[in-house]
Write a structure and sequence with these properties.
By secondary structure, the chain is an alpha+beta fold. Helices cover about 40% and strands about 25% of the residues. It is built from 5 helices and 8 strands; from the N terminus they run E-E-H-E-E-H-H-E-E-H-E-E-H. The termini are far apart.
Length: about 150
């Protein structure tokens, strides 16, 4: 298995750590990801997390732009200014820092959401609401006769 799929919700412990779901840890291990690049998602109130190659992909995109262009500067603000590196502890837990809490609204639980080559950290209720809205939008599009 080399994709992050499904979702799971885990409680934050008294020390501010949350266990990354075992299926996600298995993917991290299979892909030999030892350090997570985490950034504030561009669309959702979620933190996206993946291996260093995720940051590399964004930096290649920036490198293809004029370094002084608004597009390159905006992308740098998002991926560099809105990103950090984090590590799991020996037990597969991630520290839920203010960087995560302030952007997502996470309080006592974290929903981990698979996004194929990376995963996201969400406040559980916000994830359920956004997923239901996306499902409804897709359902309505399917009923249209364009």
């Amino acid at each position: 298995m080399n994709r992050f799929l499904s979702h799971a919700t885990n409680r934050i412990d008294a020390k501010g750590r949350v266990s990354v779901p075992s299926t996600f840890r298995s993917v991290l291990s299979a892909l030999d990801i030892r350090e997570l690049y985490c950034f504030q998602d561009f669309v959702f109130p979620a933190i996206s997390a993946g291996g260093p190659e995720l940051l590399d992909r964004f930096e290649r995109q920036i490198g293809g732009e004029d370094p002084f262009s608004p597009q390159a500067n905006q992308m740098s603000l998002l991926i560099h200014g809105g990103g950090v590196f984090m590590k799991l502890d020996q037990e597969g837990r991630l520290m839920v820092t203010d960087f995560i809490r302030d952007f997502t609204g996470i309080t006592t639980e974290v929903t981990f959401v698979g996004r194929a080559d990376h995963f996201q950290l969400w406040a559980p209720q916000v994830f359920l609401e956004r997923q239901a809205a996306a499902r409804e939008e897709r359902r309505l599009r399917g009923r249209r006769s364009d």
